Amino acid sequence: MMAMQQIETPQTGSPKNVQPLLRITGLTTEFRLEGGRRLQAVQDVDLDIGAGEILGLVGESGSGKSVFAQSILRLVQPPGQVVAGAIAFEGRSVMDMSARELSRWRGRDVGMIFQQPQSCLNPVRRIGWQVAEPLLLQEKLSRKAAWAGAVDLLRAVGIPAPEEKVLAYPHQLSGGQAQRVMIAIALALKPKLLIADEPTTALDVTIQAQILELLRESCRMLGTSLLLVTHDLGVVARLADRVAVMYAGRIVEEGPVETMLTAPAHPYTQGLIGAAPQLGQARGVRLKDIPGTIPDLSRLGAGCAFAPRCDARAGQNLESCTLSQPLPVSIRPRHRALCFAAKASSAVSPCEISP
Amino acid sequence: MLQYVARRLLLLIPVVIGILLVTFLMKALIPTDAVTAIYSGTLSEKDAAEAIATLRAKYHLDLPWYQQFYIYVRDLMSGDFGESIRLRKPVMDELGYRYVNTIILTLAALAIALVVGLTTGILAAVKRNSWLDVTATTIGLFGISMPAFFFGLLLILVFAVWLRWLPVVPRGTMALLLPAVALGLIEAAPISQVARTSMIDVLGRDYIQAARARGASEFALVVRHALPNALIVVLTLVGLQIGNLLGGAFIIEAIFGWHGIGELAVNAIEWRDFTLTQAIILISAATYLVVNLVADILYAWLDPRVELNS
Amino acid sequence: MSVILLDEPLVPTPPRWRRFVARLLRNPSVVVGGTILILLILLALFAPWVAPYDPFKVNPVQRLKPPSWLHLMGTDEVGRDLFSRLIFGSRYFLLICIVTASISASIGTLLGLIAGAGSVVTESIIMRLIDVMLAFPYILMVLVIVAILGPSLWTGMISIGIAGIPGYARLVRSAVLTVKREDYVVSARALGASEADILFRTILPNVLSPLIVYLAFSMPLAALVTSSLSFIGLGTQPPAPEWGAMLVNSRTYLFSAWWAVTGPGMALFISIFGLNILGNGLRDVLDPRSAA
Q: Which of B217, B218, B304 sits opposite A124 (nearest CB)?
């Protein structure tokens, strides 16, 4: 228990009184469906990312985590739209940026990589053209310098024979190589924030570890913060400093990786960790699946979206769960959860002793 | 690349033989051949029979069909397309300059069709569901429903008769203007539709979103990232489109008095001058074949996903 | 009895065809296109009663008169009433649509079925034949056949019918190749159905909806080309009141009597537009996936 407390001390996160790199408050993204119905894929999300920090965002598919990642860069396309909330990047409001400022910001200060690297590369353009593009358009380098820069970038992400690969087309690359190219493009201008949306899901298991290692090392070297969106708790356990768990468009729990994985407060997180065998800490504990499926986001009731699947609610028979939204509960410093049952469950946890 | 071209050429051989057979059969299938037609009623029966026999021998009409076909192909190879019975001169003499005229008209129309079709199609895709999109789609539907000859007459009526912007009997480049516009605008409709559909498809792809994420402006997205991909799709259509333009030219030429092979073909069929008809059909089919071959090769060359050597 | 009634829905669901019609009627394109088509059919059926004049009646005194209450759409170069001729023209238009479509659709479908379901040899013979036909631009193929058969309304329609065969054959063949692998065809064969049975009772109904959509689009094209053929003198011959043929003579009077050109032209344009928009609507209803 005491050991846990020690680990909890921040490694890379920013001190509390300093402004974070990215501060998101009340972000809500809505999709208009046919027939006038609306679907809130992201609901009232607050999240900070500190400079140099690696934040893991975990959730099942359909939980809204990809839409959230795209909302940060204002990439959501109609019929989707960010309808509420503020995004501050180094104090600047992203929502208020003009089209020109936005494209400059996206090009220089943030980068993004996606789940399907091969479909994210333009099939009719050479690799070199695509890697050199940010250097050419944002840095205003000459064609020759940009091309040389592309070769260097490809070498830096571990592409063999980069002088030849700049001439290749995307379909000639393997999935792992394509993702390395995407990382090279995203990091070309040394952004302060990198958003990686399921960067290894589409790759072979053997390649996954290499790509994750590359991501971590690149970000550490450049001092870039990383928002790592994934459904894989193993990935988070390996890379992240902090973890946020998303369910039905809301962040239901958020905290440092160590306490989140060993002493989760939200029944959903508990279920997730129970369902993930390799995390090891709770060896011998019976694995349990979370019964039920993700709810239809366009037909949510007034209460907690997880309530129908929730063991804790069933066990404690909490009526408020189905009637109103739970408010964030501070479990311990820097660790909060969105649950009526959270306090009760953490009260019995020994961690509560901490000041 | 060379291998690919060679393979494509090899695949063309049966089609070429087929085309030659069709044009050859065209003449063989005709109930009364031109020789009989010329002399019917003009000579006494005995003289006619003799004259016909001589002429039939001259045109090899007395040989079995496969020998006739051999002679037909052999003559074509040596550039002999035969002699027009009506015009009383070698077909090639008349065909040469008319062919150039038709090609000029077709290319001018293609240029107009591409400029108008691509611009409207791309704008409609970028401003999807706006009034611009709706207008372009509606005009496109008008375009495919508008008979070319009526559109041509309307253009003359409006611009030459009512507005008097153009001379009634235009010369030189002016003579090209109206037929090219009539043909080009009508063929712009399908190009616009395909450009719109493929552009909408491309703009929804992951690599566009990825490019947007790395700071490409909306203009750069359309021009630098999406356009090349959409154009490759449009290119596959242009080969077919040339066939429509060539066919359309056959009808448009008659209205505007443009002296191309289309105008000649209409006359040749009315005259039942089959050597002439045959030659025109053959040369048009050959042109269409070559254009499609070039379009295919261009496509393979432009789209890196097509593996040339497999 | 009452128990059985309880199981039934309170509002009986309408039969399938009626639901289908309801879906058709909700589509604005189908409504507009269908209205134009029905008007055409009515005009064609009741032409002698609707038309104020005999469409062939020459009246030199009244030649090239502009539209008036006497002659709603004016008169042509020999004094025939254009309004009456336009009404009778609808008969030609529909005749052309029906004849050309029947020829192309029946022969093309048959060839496509045989090519799709037949042996490798028959398939390759049919497909090579079709390749050669497709090596000619559409209008050129028509001209080849017209050149052989000689110019007239019927030869024009036959030519266009024949030139339309490859399109149907290709469509049906590829549809058959897809359907052939489906479970219900395999099980029909396992149950001992004969090949012909499978072809016409199992496969054909399943390729019907792409066929209808293709038919809806190829009919206006056929009508357009037939009228073009008449216009260049290789189709219907004057004095038949076919819209394309009517333009042959009147274009000479473009400068003095524009109404003689715009009347038949607009009739053609509106009719073809009606069929095209009907095709659009049918495609959206029958084959929603292909709609952009």
A: B304
